[in-house]
Amino acid sequence: MKTVVLKFGGTSVGNIDRIKRVAKIIATYKKKKFGVIVVSSAMSGITNQLIKQTKELSKNFDAAEYDVLLSTGEQASCALIAGRLKHLGFKARSWMSWQIPIITEGSYSSSRINKINKNKISNFMKSGGIPIITGFQGINSENRVTTLGRGGTDASAIMLAKFFNADTCDIFTDVDGVYTTDPKNHLKAKKIDKISYDEMLEMASLGAKVMQPASVQDAKLNNISFSVKSSFKKIKGTLITNNKKAFSDQIITGITSTKNDAKITIIGVKDKPGVAASIFKPLSLNQINVDMVVQNISLNSKETDLTFTIKSEDLKKTEKTIKQNKKISFRKFTYDSNVSKVSIIGVGMITTPGITYRMFQALASKKINIMVISTSEIKISVLISNKYVKKAIATLHKEFKLD
User: Fold this and answer.
1) C-alpha distance across the termini of the chain, in Å
2) How sure is the predictor about 248, in pLDDT bands with cuts at 50, 70 and 90?
3) How far apart are CA 366 and CA 262, in angstroms?
4) Interhelix angle for 72-87 vs 16-31, to 10°?
5) Most-buried pick from 73, 170, 282, 358 (CB within 10 A)?
6) How far apart are CA 218 and CA 234, in angstroms?
7) For position 247, what pLDDT does the model report?
């Protein structure tokens, strides 16, 4: 018997009618004689509502109790799905992570799954049952509930597919696959049939909201191919895989953009060994993630300028941290929060010369100024003004024949 893992996101189970639709989807797999494992998120909006309640109660709500609270959203949706399947005549039941158990490690709110006990679920499936498992959570070595971070139900599905050696893993959401760029930014975006782990990982970390980067990383590390598809349309989704035979000769696979970046420039920094480490260490200790970094060449060997990007919500904390840093000296601190990062991603650029030139020339032709540049083997990112994001995406989409 082939095994399939089906994951349903918050919008897919957002109300009673949608849960009825989800039950029908599950039923179609069961009728095809699949062994079905279902993983569900909380109904859309529930997790945010619970988070809001913790903030109203305390500015420093206990981490362990925070995870216990947030885990209740998935418990409710799983019970509703199981109840509907029973109504339709199927053997089904909800399973909390601690009942299986799903073992996690790491801190509260950002744990990772490292073991899943298969016995109870396997026996239930052998008896013809459909287990409906709470995503986004597990239990730690102290027998306390932990959660996996935003989008963690994807990680639950990937790891269940690994431990149960599933033949298929389908991630159902409110979009019908991964697109070349966000259709909200560009109407000529098109759905990608197949994409590599590395490309999907870059797109997820650079602004694409379809998948959580950690989940894609888990899939890559465990070689789990999975599909992203819509729970609202009966059409083929996007396959994320490492099978080289699956891909076309397309040089650039996708284009992403961010909305919450800020550019920091520290002018007149004393140019000496270790100065960059002295700047970035306190930022790291304050949980501030630094992305793009550019250091100007020191013309007099005495001073240099350092530019880097952060998330805009960290702007005040970054300014305070740098200005209180006694280990560095500088003449001026400036910032710009009206910036966005636009990136092109594709494994094809590894073996294709001239991609950098084509990107920069296309943007220049539309008079779009580039502030900062960063690259890897399969992506080129540029920092530009917010107001030019849609124009940049449209220009690059056309330049690399993605329309």
Assistant:
1) 41
2) low
3) 23
4) 60
5) 73
6) 27
7) 56
Contact between 383 and 339 (Cβ < 8 Å): yes
| Lookup: tokens for 195 | 């994409």
Contacts with 117 (C-beta within 8 Å, 6 or more apart), sequence order: 100, 101, 102, 103
Q: Are strands 112-116 and 102-105 parallel, antiparallel or unpaired?
A: antiparallel
Range in 115-129, 169-183, 247-261 the model is least confident about:
247-261
* Spatial distance between the Cα atoms of 34 and 18, rounded to a whole number of angstroms: 22
Which tens digits make up the pLDDT trace of 336-387? 999 999 999 998 888 889 999 999 999 999 999 999 999 988 999 999 999 9
pLDDT at 81 exceeding the cut of 70: yes
The residues facing 35 across adjacent strands are 3
401 Ramachandran zone, left/alpha/beta (phi>0; psi -120 to 50): left
Residue type, 182: D
Rounded Cα gap, residues 258 and 266, in angstroms: 23
Residue 310 phi/psi, 5-degree rounding, is -140, 175
Rounding to the nearest 10 degrees, give the CA dihedral for residues 39, 44, 46, 52: 130
Which of 141, 32, 151, 12 has its CA nearest to residue 77?
Answer: 12
User: Residue 306: which residues within 8 A CB-CB, separation 6 or more?
Assistant: 265, 266, 269, 276, 279, 293, 294, 295, 296
The predicted pLDDT at position 230 comes to 93
Q: Identity (one letter) of the amino acid at 373?
A: I
3-174 homologous superfamily: Acetylglutamate kinase-like (3.40.1160.10)
pLDDT value at 112 more than 90: yes
Residue 218: which of 166, 172, 152, 173 has the closest Cα? 152
Q: Which two tokens stand for residue 369?
A: 């100024």
